[in-house]
Amino acid sequence: MNRIAPFRDYQIFIGGRWCQPASREYFETFDPFLGKPWARIPRCDQRDVDAAVSAARAALEGAEWACMHPTRRGQLLCRFGDLIQQNADRLAAIEVQDNGKLYAEMRTQLGYIPEWFRYFGGLADKIEGAVLPIDKPDMFTYTRHEPVGVVAAITPWNSPLMLATWKLAPALAAGCTVVLKPSEFTSASTLELMRLVEEAGFPAGVINVVTGFGTEVGDALTTHPGIDKIAFTGGENSGRHIGRNAADSFKRLTLELGGKSAQLVFPDADLDNAVKGVVSGIFAATGQTCIAGSRVLVHDSIHDQFLEKFIALASTARMGDPMNSETQVGPITTQPQYQRVLSCITMAHDEGAECVLGGKPATGEECGGGWFIEPTVFVNVSNSMRIAQEEVFGPVLSVIRFQDDEEAYAMANDTHYGLAAGIWTSDHRRAFNGAWRLRAGSVWTNTYRAVSYMAPFGGFKYSGIGRESGQEAIYDYLETKCVWMSYGQNVPNPFVLR
Ligand code: NAD
User: Fold this and answer.
1) What are 231-245's pLDDT values in tens digits?
2) How many structural domains does the chain have?
């Protein structure tokens, strides 16, 4: 797949129109493989946020969307999914150019993203209330589920289209309208997606995009009185800040935050499979995933054997141009993140961990001048070290020994995160027990890094609030209203609770 050329200037999408930001200012977005800018993104501010929220509010209250039959709403979502499918090559290429993920992975993701729109499109006309068998005489009581309102959807740089989809699909199926803010590092693919919003025929203002910096646009959006709900994916500190903003005006809130997920390798595991699973957990997407299995806890009796096999496989990982189908490990997406990963490697050395693979920037010709770091493995790590507790969000694995199952579960849970965990065992009792003992929103046994539109995803503890995907996700975009209708002849004693 080829890079996009020539240099592009993007516009924002508000109320169904492409427009310049009020500031008329733009900033550059970089190709992480080349470490060079390839497009300019509008730098929005409060004025653009005001315009986008007004457009979303008008669409929410306008007859075209508010009175659209849910079956038709669902069909629109399915049509949008079909258009994404038809444009998957182009969208994948833009995503790769902007965030450096492998084209092979992005093309697969773009082939799968339409399923979210089809699944939630199918749910749109199955949002049913209930008639309650109420314990009062002469009363007919029922519930309705109504759209929560205008949603601010904020996404990070590591999977812009997938994470926007996880919010857009249930929000639109529920009848909400959306103002989407992608990361300042990777806004291009979300803006490109808006061409398909137009083509699908969504009423103007149902989906809007503003771009720019978290402290400018993000803050303006999350404090805006016209926003009813915030759906955020990103880092812990931003999540905490946004949670406080939401609390000020009681906005509904879902947070998908970070992780320090453990993979547990028990002595009865199929070691070859475990090695592949741990490699995929930490080196796929260059470790830049919230579910990165960045700690592997290995039973003492198989530690050395596991490590030998692991290093043998990990050291063959081919780094290079993410557009190239042969590449297995691409660049770090942003320069600040590149610096952060290097500083975590220094921190691990300082703490006394021993680096047995990688540990340095990769600068070979195949690395194109971009932000590459070698797949890195530390041993002699104790679970209390910062390298075992803090999210690196890069290709850095900590290997930790355990002596028995109790110690493994205790260490796996001994972090303030709780996003995901992996178990490698051939004993089904251990698999069931582990799934119960691990405090994490997703537990994978003898597999890792599987997600689906049907499967709820989210975190325990500091890893977030709420779930995305799966049927229950739609209720995060709905308010429940209870309607009481009396058919009694007389209103009883007005001074007594009925
Ligand atoms: P980030 O928190 O820096 O930014 C995420 C988004 O929030 C960006 O759009 C940013 O502009 C915006 N933002 C930043 N500060 C803001 C503020 N004060 N108000 C409003 N918006 C603000 O995160 P990142 O560096 O882009 O992404 C990496 C993080 O995302 C990692 O911690 C990772 O674990 C997490 N993540 C979580 C999941 C999940 O599903 N749990 C998925 C992917 C990434």
Assistant:
1) 999 999 999 999 999
2) 2
